[in-house]
Amino acid sequence: MTSPHGPQTPPAPRAHEHPVPSAYTQSQLASEAAGRRRRRTVLSAGLALALVAGLAATAWLLWPTSESGQPPKAAGNPGGLYRPATVAQPQGVEGSVAYPMYTPELPDESPLMELPGAWAKGKTFAKTTPRGIDGYQGTSPDPVWQIKTRKDICGASRDLTADGLGVILYRDNDPGPDWKLDTPPCNNIGVFDIDTGKPVWDAEFDSAAETAKNLRYSENLPVAVSDGVVAVPWGRGSIAYDIHSGKKVWANSATDGCSDWAYAGGETILALVYCGSYENTSTYIQAIDPHSGKREWSYGLARDINLAWVLSVDPPAIAVSAGEGAVDPTNVITIDGQGNKKSSITLPTDRYDLGCEGIGLMQPCRTAPVIDGRLYLPTMPDEDTHENSVIEFDLPTGGMKRKYDSKPGRPFYPLRRNGDDLMVYNAGMGPLRLHNIGTSVNSIESLNLDTAKTSPYMVLPYTKDSELLINVDSDILIEGGRVYFVLPTVYAPEKDGPKFTWYGVAFEAKG
Questions:
Q1: Greatest CA span in the chain, whole angstroms?
Q2: Phi, psi at residue 405, to the nearest 5°?
Q3: Which end of the chain is more exposed for a tag (fewer CB within 10 A), N or C?
C-alpha cells in the first residue's frame, strides 16, 4: 500500500505489540464508557408474558474445511447489499412477543462478551453466539438452525448480500507456539446463507509468520462487504475474497508505515488508515476499489481527531470526535469523490445523540441514518418535558433543512428509511395511551417527512424479561413485519438469578 505522503519507514514492532499505535487506542476505555452513557429507557405498565423454559438443541453444523485448502464454491449473484428501501407492514399495530432469545452460555466463565452480527431477511432472524450463529423463524424460542465454529466469534458483517449471504470471523483454535497472548488471534472467516442456514465457505487468513504475529492483538475485527467482495483489515495487512466463491481477490500488507485499521462497506469500501508512529500518527479516510484493492482517494483527518465513525459510504459522511479528551462525536464531515472535504456540521456538546459506540471502528451509528443525501440526528431529550427533535441536515452543504418535534414525554430516534418516510423508535417516559391501542410506552413509528406526522408501525408490549432490551442501545432491526431488539454485548446471568435471561426478542403483530 502506498502512503498518502509517500513511503515512510514503519516503526519496528516489538513481538506481539499493537502494529501502529494511535490516538484511538488512548481513548478506547473512555469511549466505551461514553458510548454506554446514553439514555436507558425503562419500560413500565403493559402486557405480561410467561417465560418459556428450556432451550432445546437443533441440528449442529461444524464449519466445513476444504481438504485442498480451497473453500468450496457456491453459486450466487455477486450483487449489492440487502438494504430494502421499504419495510413490510405488520398485520396490525398492536405488537406481541413472537419469541425470546435466551442468553447463551459464555466461554470460560466470562462475565460479558461482545457478539457482533445480527441479520434479518424475510421471516428469518440470525444472531451470533459465542461460538456460532443461531437462526430463528416462526414463534419458537428454539433456533431452527445453528452453525458452530471451532472457536469464539470475533467479528461480523453488518449487512447481508442481496441473495442472503452474511460473514463472521472467528478465532484460531491453535495459533502455534509463537503466539503468546491469552486470547487466540482473530484470523478465520466464514460465509453463511441466512435462507438455508448452511455454511458456504470458510478460510484462514494468510498465515505467514509475520502476519500471524502481528494480527491486531486479538481484538474483534471489522468486516466490510461491497459489490460481492468481503474485506477484512487487521492492522498489519488486509485481505479480500469473492463472497460467493471464497476466491481471494486481493491482499495488502502494511510495509510503508501505514496500517489499514478498519473498513466500512457499501457502494465502495471506506478505510480508516494510520500512518507513522505512536508519537507521530497521521490518520486518513481512504476509498478502496473492492475488486482491485487500489486506493481511489485519500482524505487526511486533523491531528486533534480522536475517533471516527462512518455514517454513510455513499455519500462519504464521517462523524468524528475532535479535541483533547473528546470521545463523543463533535463534527460530521462529508467528502466528495476526489477526497476533498465537501461540508462540515458542528455538533455542540450534549446536543445530539448519534448512538455511536466502540472505538471508531468504522461502524454506522445506530441513530444517525443517511437517506438520499440527508442526515437525520436526534437531539437529547429535555430533562423536564422529555421532548426531543430530529434534525434533518443536507450533507452536500452541511445546512439544517428541517426540525421534527416529538410529543411531550415521548422522545424519538431515527432508525432507517421506509420509502419516503423515516422509521423511528418512540421511547415513552411513562405509561400513556398511544393511538388508542392500549397502555404502552414504546413503539416503532413511521415519520412522514413532508407532513411531520407519525403513524404507528408497531406498539411494543411491556414484559419484565425484555425491559432492558427495549432501547436504542440495542441493535434494532425491522424486517418482514417484525421488530427485533438484541443486545450487542451479552452479560452472563447472575448466579442467583433466573436460569434463562433474554438477550434478544422478536415482536410481531398480535394475532
A1: 67
A2: -100, 140
A3: C
Q: What is the pTM of this model?
A: 0.84
Between CA 61 and CA 372 the distance in angstroms is 41
Q: Is the pLDDT assigned to residue 382 strictly greater than 50? A: yes
Which phi-psi region, left, alpha or beta, contains residue 298 (left: φ > 0; alpha: ψ -120 to 50)?
A: beta
Average pLDDT, the chain: 80
3-state secondary structure 323-345: CCCCCCCCEEEEECCCCCEEEEE
The closest of 85, 39, 78, 99 to 353, measured between CA atoms, is 39
- Phi, psi at 229, each rounded to 5°: -120, 140
DSSP state of 206: P
List the one residue out of 99, 98, 95 whose CA is nearest residue 437.
95
Round to whole Å and give the CA distance between 217 and 237. 13
DSSP classification of residue 32: H
Q: Which range is least confidently modeled, 9-13, 252-256, 312-316, 454-458?
A: 9-13
Q: Let me know: does 466 contact 505? Beta carbons within 8 Å.
A: yes
| 234 vs 253: CA distance, rounded Å | 10
By three-state DSSP, how is residue 387 classified?
A: coil
Residue 465 is predicted with a pLDDT of 86
Q: Which of 166, 175, 116, 170 is nearest to 145 (CA)?
A: 166
What is the predicted pLDDT for the residue at 358?
65
Give the SS3 label for residue 26: helix
Residues contacting 250, CB < 8 A, separation 6+: 239, 240, 291, 292, 293
- Look up residue 118 and give its three cell numbers: 445480527
| DSSP β-ladder status, 145-148 and 60-62 | parallel
pLDDT in tens, 455-470: 999 999 888 888 888 9
Q: What is the mean pLDDT of residues 410-427?
A: 95
Tell me if 488 sits within 8 A of 471, measured CB to CB: no
Nearest residue to 119 (alpha-carbon basis) of 477, 506, 487 = 477
Q: What DSSP assignment string belongs to 64-110?
A: P--TTSSPPP-------B---SS-PPPS-SBEEEEEEEEPPPPGGG-
Query: pLDDT tens across 422-436, in order?
Result: 999 998 754 444 444
Residue 46 has pLDDT above 80, yes or no: no
Rounded Cα distance, 118 and 231, in Å: 18
Could you tell me how many residues make up the chain?
Answer: 511
Q: Where are the extended beta strands (E) located within 294-407?
A: 295-300, 305-312, 317-322, 331-335, 341-346, 370-371, 374-378, 389-394, 399-405
